[in-house]
Amino acid sequence: MQSPPPLPSLIKPFMEGNLAILGKRGSGKTTLALQACSFREHGLIIDTLGDIQSGSPIQYSELHRLNEWRRLDIPREAERLGVGIDNLAGCAFTAVVRLARAQLLPRPFTLFVDEADSYGSAAWNNEALREAARYGRHWGIQYIVTARRYAEIPKDWTANADLVLMGPSLDPADAEVVRRIAGDYSRNWAIIKQPYFLGISLDGPGLYVYNSIDRTIEAESL
After folding, report:
1. Are 72 and 46 in contact (CB under 8 A)?
2. Which fold has domain 9-221?
């Protein structure tokens, strides 16, 4: 992957650590996630919709070869194996966590799950995945997760994120999630429009702007 220009220090969590990006389809969240991936040397892209071009393709049976950025095309691989996408995703999550716990993956290793809310409870009620969100740092796992419907993402993924980026949404349920994450700063989220994201990190809140023309990211404190 080609690295973009250096980012402001405010968004250091963007370049390393756990990252959750929430926003409607077309808001730029997957592009933001891929830019975050470009700062990381090793990882697996769980390509939920089969439309990501980055990362070398890999089959499920080859997950033990994860020593560079690879991409698991969930729809195509599920069709090849004759299984449902929830089942395949759950198995992939479990395999990555087992490999990491056995110290068979390079460190740090990033697990990028795109459009995570497309999966049902069969994939998310996965003990290995919940453990990865809570304790993955101890095993060298970082995660990046994107989702359209805020309320359908397990709290473990936002509670353990070093940075949460939240794009605009009109869904009242999303507003409640933003209030839980951002507190008083949720009032800033209520007025932002694409391509702005409200970001909450350990360094404080900020506005993150993705420029779809030159593919750059800017950040400023609130």
Report:
1. yes
2. Rossmann fold (3.40.50)
